[in-house]
Specification:
The protein is mainly alpha-helical. It folds into 3 domains: 12-87, Winged helix-like DNA-binding domain superfamily/Winged helix DNA-binding domain (Arc Repressor Mutant, subunit A), CATH 1.10.10; 91-123, no CATH class; 125-168, no CATH class. It has 7 helices and 2 strands. It has a two-stranded antiparallel ribbon. The two termini are 36 Å apart.
């Protein structure tokens, strides 16, 4: 079965999912951001088949989230280093941790987010870098950007672009 490619779609969510939307990729990035660099470390942590891990690591290198660096000539071995793009994925992982703890951990959090200095629990929010205001408020909305296609402009206008502030 041929996988649908989202890389040419006009939507930034679709384009991002094209690069990291497969669950193994997200878990590999979680482990890489946690300090793992070697194939054997990822395989032991994830209990993933070697051929699948190879495909996912290659895809993350190709997408620019990881860089491959040789650490042994004989036999040839590589480690995987998180790139700037990979580090930019960290807030998404933190948001997934907070979301998972809130909605899918009835037994309690298995991973907690805490202030590294005080140890106090932290509750992440998404804020505007320029103003420091929370983005999940009625003060912000999504609109078509300057590179939006006509279809995207129509979609955004039709939906009133309230994704950031919608509630059920």
């Amino acid at each position: 079965m041929q996988r649908t490619r989202f890389s040419a779609m006009d939507c930034p969510i679709a384009r991002s999912l094209d690069r990291v939307g497969e669950w193994w990729s997200i878990l590999i990035l979680r482990d890489a951001l946690g300090g793992m660099t070697r194939f054997e470390e990822f395989q032991k942590s994830l209990k993933i088949a070697p051929n699948m891990l190879t495909r996912r690591l290659n895809a993350l290198v190709e997408a620019g989230f990881l860089a491959r660096r040789r650490y042994s000539e004989h036999p040839p071995r590589h480690e995987y280093i998180v790139t700037e793009r990979g580090r930019d994925f960290r807030p998404i992982l933190i948001a997934l941790i907070a979301f998972g703890n809130r909605h899918f951990a009835p037994e309690g959090a298995s991973v907690s987010i805490v202030d590294a200095v005080s140890g106090a629990p932290a509750e992440p929010i998404l804020v505007d870098r320029l103003t420091g205001r929370p983005l999940v408020s009625s003060e912000f909305e999504l609109i078509a950007g300057p590179a939006a296609s006509e279809a995207m402009k129509a979609r955004m206008a039709k939906r009133a672009a309230r994704l950031l502030t919608s509630s059920v």
